[in-house]
Amino acid sequence: MKQTIVWIAISLALITGSITAQETTQHDLSEKLLNLMKMQETITSSFAAVKQMLPGQMEKMRQTMGPTSKPSPTPEQTGKLMDMISQELSWDKLKEGYIALYAETFTADELKGLIAFYESPVGQAYIQKQPELTKRSMVLTQGMMLKIMPKMQNLIKEMQSDSTPQAEPGK
Fold it and tell me: Nearest to residue 26, comparing CAs of 88, 147, 109, 82?
């Protein structure tokens, strides 16, 4: 009986150790992948691009939407807001969450495949071109959003007028 309990304890220890090693491997592989993907630089440059483009885009939106009773934020206010967001969403604060996300989403074999891709010449070219792709896709999306702003405004007005309580007849 004692021997059986010892074997069960040893088996549990080995299984627990194996799971811990697998989690460590997933964690390490995820961290390596994120480093290869230059995720920290990507996040930093994305915030910088948004910060640079935001004042112009806000002005275009203001022009598209027409005059409102609320003043537009100043460039200084917008910059201050973006600085706060970039500090709160810094890589130091996001890193462990990203590592866990990738470790939970991909198997070890998938992570190894992604690492192999990002270490390849094609993967390196993708990494080098990704910031420009991101910037250009943001410009494309923002341009499209500006085109649909009048439609959005009309829809919002319709929804607001539809939700206005109607007086009951006879009262």
Answer: 109
Taking residue 19's Cβ as centre, other Cβ atoms within 10 Å add up to 10
Question: What are 79-91's pLDDT values in tens digits?
Answer: 888 888 888 888 8
Assign 100 to helix, strand or coil: helix
Residues 108 and 17: beta-carbon distance below 8 Å: no
Cβ atoms of 118 and 124 within 8 Å: the answer is: yes
| 145-171 average pLDDT score | 77
Q: How far is CA 97 from the centre of its chain?
A: 11
The amino acid occupying position 157 is K
Alpha carbons within 13 A on the beta-carbon side of 51: 17
Are 115 and 32 contacting, i.e. CB atoms less than 8 angstroms apart?
Answer: yes
Say how many Å lie between the first and final Cα of the chain, rounded.
85
> Mapping DSSP to helix (H, G, I), strand (E, B) and coil, where does residue 140 land?
helix
